[in-house]
Structures are given as C-alpha cells and as structure tokens.
Specification:
The protein has about 675 residues and is an alpha/beta fold. It has 25 helices and 20 strands. The strands form five sheets. It has a seven-stranded mixed β-sheet with strand order 14-13-15-16-12-17-20, with helices on both faces. Strand 7 and strand 8 form a beta hairpin. The N terminus is likely disordered.
Length: about 675
C-alpha cells in the first residue's frame, strides 16, 4: 500500500485513537524488536496518518528484518512472541509468492480464485459504512463458504484453525478473559496449557487484541483461527449475556474518568519512583483500559469491594462477592505502581504520598445511574494496598419485607421503629448489612410530618427527605458533637451511624429519654451482650434499662443460586446438633447449587440477612437494672420468643434459601 500524497482527514477522536495504537505498537516493538506483526500494524497507522518520517523508519526496520531472514519458500512460519504470525518469505514473482500481511483480504481471495473481482466489489460496497468484517459479508452473501474461508485464513496466517461448535470449553479458562473483553476484541479463550493460553480469533494479525489479552491474563498467547460468526455465537453460548452493551459501558466509564484531575502534591521523590513517572505510567492507554475493565467487571459481578494487593513477587486483584473474597486476576508486578496511581488520580488523591493512608471517592456513571467507589489506600511492606467499596444506589434494598425477617421478628421490629421515643440498637460486624437495615427502617417511617436527622461516617447513600450529616473528626464534627447539634434542630428521629464511645452513648440515651426515637449501631456478637457492652462503657444500668426498646443482631449469608439449585433428601433431625429446635417437619428437601455461569460456578448467588431480634420487655429491663449475667438475659429472651442467629439461619435452610455450611460459616452456636 503506497502512502497517500496528503494526510487523510480524521476527527480528533480518530486521530487520538490511532496515536494510542501507535504508542502501544512502539511499546511492543521496544520489548521485541523483531515483532513483524507490530511493525506491519505501525506501518498501516503511519500510512493513514500521513506521517512520512515515521513511516520511513518503520519501512527501514521491516527491510532490515527481511534481509536477516533466510528464504524459506513454502515453509510455514511460526507465531512470534505470542502476538502474531511472522511475515512469510518472498518468492521470485507475484504468482509464486504468498501474499504478505499488507495484502488486503479481498485481494488475496481473488488471487486464490476463491471469489471473483465482481463479487469482491459487491462485498466492499456492502461493507461501506459498517464495521462488519469482509469475510463475514462474503459468507453472508454466499460468495464463499465458511469452511473455505477458515481454511484459507489458516493457510495465510500459518496458524491452526478450529471449529468452535465442537469444543467444550473449561469454565476456568473462560474466567481468564472477562466477557466484555472477549466481546470487544472478538476473541474467545479455548484452552490453557501451563503458561500458554490458546485464543480463537478471526484475525490473528490483530496485534492490539493479542497484546491486550496477554496484558490482562499475564499469559503467553497462542492464536488459532475461527470465523467471526462462530466466535460471536460461541461467546454468546459461553458467557451468556454478560458481555452485552460493553461499548456503552466503557464509553460511560471513560467519560466519567475524563473529569478527574491529579491532586497537587509535594515536589519530592518518594522511594525510587518519581511522581511524574507515576502520573505518566498511570495515564498510559493499557493501564487505563485495565483499570476500566476491573471496575466494570466488579460492577457486573455484583461485587461489594475491590482489593488491589501488592506482595513481594506478585500483584493480585480480588473481589468480595456475596461476602466472600474471590481472586480475579494477577496482573504483572510491574503494573502495581501504575494501577495504584490510576486509582489515586480517579479518586483525587495525592499520588506522591505513599507513606500514609489516604481516603477518597470515585463517582462513575454506569447505564444512566451513578455508582460511587469509596477508596482507601494503605502502605504495606511491599507497596500500597488499595480497597474500593462499591456503593450502588440502585441495588439498595429498602423494603423491610424483603430483607429476610421472619414474621415474628418483623412484627417486633416494625413496632419498635414506629414508637414515639426510645433507643433501637443494631449490632453486627462490619459488612453485615447494618446500614441497609437502618436505611430500610428510616425509609419505612419517613414522611413529610417527621423530621429525621442522621450522623454518618461516611454517608453511603442519599435518602430523600432526610437530613444527613457527614462526620469529620479532623474538624471536630464528631458523632457526639453532631448529636448535641441535632437536639437543637427539633428532631423526631435521630440516626447515629455508630456508638463508639461513652460520650456518644450518653447523649444518645438522653435523647431517647427526652422524646426522640434514636437508631444506632454497636459492635457486639449478639443481642443479649449489647446491654453488657453499654454498661461496660460506663452508662448507668437505670439509663440503659429505661432507654432501650429493642436490640437487633444480624449477619449476611449467601443464598443458593436460583438458576442451578437442586434438591436432596435430608431430615430435620440432622439440624439438631447445630442448635435447631425441631418443629416436626421430619423428612425434608434441602437445596444446594450445582454451579452455573450465573453464580460463577460457586452454587451461591446473592445474600439474605439472618436476624436475632430481642424486644426489651419489662422482665429484661429488671435484669439489666440489677446487672444480671448475659446468659440469664439470653434465657429470658428465648423464652419470650427470640430466635438466635444460628436458629434463624437453620430455619432458612429448611426453607431452601441457604445451606447448612453457609449458616455454620457466619454464625456461632
């Protein structure tokens, strides 16, 4: 292809895209100077851009490589560097030489007499203005059979062909390349052997696609040829609908990132890496694309947290899905600083500061809804660990009836939150769903005639009609200070994110005793021990017994996947050793997940809350007043109808919602 006499017209966006592709090819060539596939791609890019000076340099490199290679006649060439086929050797004339990479597909097919020149022109006219591949159009117009096209491509590229409809691909191999990446690049992983990943693709010379997959998986790539239609159909079968709307999603993420700027930092060197080098590496196209893929994949999988973790000789990415951490990928260790810096740039943090923890937020727009990422960085001995908590307003469930309450517990909790005054305490570890329960309670009682005020750290979701305050200890806006201010704001309902100290507890209890309904959280293992925790803080027993209305403890358990659940025979008696109180069910059916694409072959998908609800009756008040042991309070509460966390969880096993193993994992006997 001869270079044009003048530069072709490209939009700024197209020119930027070509420039990024050129930079990526230059990086590949720098790592492997003999990569002819990358050089040929670079030659096409500079030809399109009309950059004669750089084009001459690339042509010179190709000529030098051709001079170093011995003639091989018809001998097939091997794939170099896992990125693309080497250029075949030339013969003595056009008729007996095999067409090189720079020949267009249509010209090759005409030269092989597989189609006529007229058929090629008709197919090119059909292709104009679309992104459809020429080969697919020729097959669709019945000018060429798919088998002949596949055989031809295999010969031309000197790589094997594969019939995807005959393959049963291992799900573990599919996990290596996310659906959105496979669909965007028109590739499909089909086999892994050691450190080599076999990748089906319609165009094995697409060095950018090969490099993206190699970059993402940290594996060597062995391409094989398959038709574009077969790849698309196999991708839909293998991944289901995970990969839909990828282009829209990626463009929205990139649009959101364009507004993020670097925080001004100190002009000093930290460790061995210059802050300017960090900024430059974080803005490289491969790093930006990889970070986008991680964020998008986490959103699509329904993850609650993303962990970027550095170790001595490795770097890994993990997602917390349904409360359990899953290792997703292991990017090269060399990308650690660039990926961490990319997150810091998006979260508006100081990329130069790597000795102290930092906190920030990223806000992205995804399918017309806003998603927040709460970012936390922490220096470790091998680098900075980054954790991103995903806060998706659309996934917030605010209906008390759908949280997992049994009828008795729901009735008791509803009565408490509709009381005119008193204190309701919710207890459980971090990540047990306390915020969701609190927000659901607020949403249930929220109305125009009630003044609701909340003090939170941080404010995770915005609630309509609720006055929400963000706690900031650095400026003295603590929970206790916020509570004192609230009492001068004529509140009806007060929500305190966490009762951490004596001062906050004292003000909250006094507010509950002076005509306000107070909802708050505290860290204890179960309901009966909550009173003991307040007494241990220094609150007098008479204040605790007078203010407390109800205590609720909760955990989150994974649910059996609804798409692959299957029953098996069991007996209610088998649950007795775990703390179940028999109810006369006898022979029953329990459920477990077989594993499918929906649940990533774990058998579990989604979570349900397990509750322990203890209304504070007069008898329990008397026990608190005389500082009775926790065990005595527990016995009385059970006699009055309270089910322990373990008992509530085993009831959900009988209902087919979760499994025995999952209940044992999240509750104590």
């Amino acid at each position: 292809m001869a270079p044009p006499s003048g530069k072709a017209f490209f939009s700024d966006e197209e020119r930027q895209s070509l420039g990024e592709s050129a930079r990526l090819c230059e990086m590949i060539i720098e790592a492997n100077p003999s990569d002819t596939g990358a050089l040929e791609t670079l030659k096409e890019i500079y030809t399109k851009l009309g950059d004669r000076e750089r084009l001459a340099l690339v042509v010179g490199r190709l000529a030098g490589l051709a001079g170093d290679r011995p003639l091989a006649g018809g001998t097939s060439t091997a794939v170099q560097s896992g990125r693309g086929p080497a250029a075949p050797a030339s013969g003595t004339g056009p008729s007996d030489r095999r067409p090189g990479v720079m020949w267009r597909l249509g010209d090759r097919l005409v030269a092989e007499q597989l189609i006529t020149t007229e058929q090629l022109q008709r197919a090119l006219a059909e292709q104009r203005g679309t992104r459809e591949k020429l080969g697919s159009i020729l097959v669709r117009m019945s000018f060429l059979t798919e088998d002949k096209l596949l055989s031809f491509l295999s010969r031309q590229y000197s790589v094997p062909s594969v019939t995807l409809s005959h393959l049963d691909i291992d799900p573990e191999v599919l996990k290596l390349v996310p659906a959105q990446l496979a669909e965007r690049l028109h590739v499909l992983p089909i086999k892994r052997s050691g450190n080599v990943l076999t990748l089906a693709m319609a165009d094995p010379t697409n060095v950018l696609a090969l490099d993206d997959v190699a970059f993402f998986t940290n594996l060597q790539i062995q391409p094989v040829v398959a038709s574009e239609v077969a790849i698309r159909q196999a991708t839909e079968r293998a991944y289901g609908d995970q990969g839909s709307n990828v282009a829209d999603m990626m463009s929205e993420l990139e649009e959101a990132e364009s507004d993020v700027e670097v925080v001004e930092g100190q002009d000093e060197f930290v460790g061995k890496t210059d802050v300017f080098e960090l900024k430059e590496s974080a803005d490289e196209a491969p790093v930006v694309r990889l970070m986008n893929m991680i964020l998008v994949d986490a959103i699509r999988r329904g993850a609650s947290d993303i962990h970027l973790e550095p170790y001595e000789k490795m770097f890994r990415v993990r997602f917390r899905i349904d409360g359990v951490l899953h290792e997703i990928m292991g990017p090269p260790k060399r990308l650690e600083a660039a990926l961490t810096s990319r997150v810091k740039i998006m979260a508006n943090l100081d990329i130069a500061e790597r000795r102290l923890p930092q906190d920030g937020r990223i806000k992205l727009r995804y399918h017309q809804r806003e998603i927040d990422f709460r970012v936390s960085t922490l220096p470790t001995i091998f680098g900075e660990k980054t954790v991103m908590r995903i806060l998706d307003k659309e996934s917030l469930q605010l209906d008390l009836n759908k949280l997992g309450f049994d009828p008795w517990s729901l009735d008791q909790f509803t009565r408490a939150i509709t009381s005119p005054h008193g204190m309701i305490m919710i207890t459980g570890p971090t990540g047990s769903g306390k915020t969701t329960t609190l927000y659901s309670a607020i949403n249930t009682i929220n109305s125009p005639d009630i003044n609701i005020m909340t003090a939170e750290d941080p404010v995770e979701y915005n609630l309509k009609g609720v006055n929400q305050l963000q706690v900031n200890d650095e400026i003295g806006r603590t929970f206790a200070a916020a509570l004192r201010s609230f009492l001068r704001q004529d509140p009806d309902v007060i929500l305190v994110g966490e009762t951490r100290d004596l001062e906050t507890a004292q003000i909250g209890i006094r507010a509950a005793l002076t005509g306000h309904l107070v909802l708050t959280t505290i860290h204890t293992n179960d309901c009966p021990s909550t009173a003991a925790r307040l007494l241990d803080m220094g609150i007098p027993p008479f204040l605790v017994s007078s203010a407390l209305l109800l205590v609720l403890a909760q955990r989150l358990a994974r649910k059996v996947c609804s798409d692959c659940r299957e029953p098996y025979d069991a007996d209610e008696e088998s649950l007795i050793p775990y703390g179940h109180v028999p109810e006369g069910y006898g022979k029953v059916s329990f459920y477990r997940g077989k594993g499918c694409q929906t649940c990533s072959f774990t058998g579990m998908k989604g979570r349900v809350a397990i509750y322990e609800v203890m209304p504070v009756s007069q008898e329990i008040r008397d026990l608190i007043l005389r500082n009775a042991p926790t065990g005595e309070i527990r016995d009385v509460a059970r006699a009055q109808g309270m089910r322990s966390l373990r008992q509530n969880g085993l009831q959900k096993v009988l209902e087919g919602i979760t499994t025995v193993e999952e209940v044992l994992r999240v509750t104590l006997s």
